[in-house]
Automatic annotation (TrEMBL):
Annotated spans, Disordered: 125-153
Organism: Micromonospora pisi
Alphabetized Pfam families for the sequence: DUF5318 (PF17249)
Domain of life: Bacteria
Protein name: DUF5318 domain-containing protein
Biased composition (Basic residues): 144-153
InterPro entries cross-referenced by the UniProt entry: DUF5318
Length: 153
């Protein structure tokens, strides 16, 4: 299975920003600044959550997943649904995913996490068990190794 690698969680940074807002040192106009593109991405590609907005508390937050990577070419920087990510992870060697939470009511937005996905994320144990099954079925390692090398290209 494809796994998330190099996960960076931004929850501590979010708590620090919210602490500043609640203390009155930072105004809501400074943190509620979602661009129209981000709001549209939240509407059409976002995944609704059960978490209320920490600023307005009127609406639940929406998570938007942005993808970046050299192999993505024109698709880099696009918002994708959560369901599209496993399909991309099987076809692309490696790409970054940035998850942004957005409140469509007050324009609050903050980076939630960032992680790496792609074919390179196949766990070693899974690859070895697939190799053992292929050897048992064919009696030879060479064709499987050649196919594995061709798949990596």
């Amino acid at each position: 299975m494809r796994t998330q690698r190099q996960v960076v969680d931004y929850s501590l940074q979010k708590r620090a920003v919210l602490r500043e807002v609640y203390a009155g040192r930072v105004g809501t106009y400074e943190v509620c600044d979602a661009s129209p593109y981000l709001k549209n991405a939240a509407r059409f590609h976002g995944e609704p959550t059960e978490v209320r907005c920490p600023i307005c508390r009127r609406e639940n937050l929406t998570h938007v997943h942005y993808i970046y990577g050299d192999e993505l070419k024109q698709s880099a920087g696009q918002a994708r649904t959560l369901a599209e990510l496993p399909v991309l992870a099987m076809t692309v060697r490696e790409f970054q995913v940035y998850v942004v939470e957005v409140c469509r009511a007050c324009d609050w937005n903050h980076l939630v996490e960032q992680y790496l996905l792609g074919r390179d994320g196949v766990t070693g144990d899974q690859g070895d068990s697939q190799m053992d099954e292929a050897v048992a079925a064919t009696g030879s390692r060479a064709p499987v190794a050649r196919r594995r090398r061709e798949a990596r290209r």
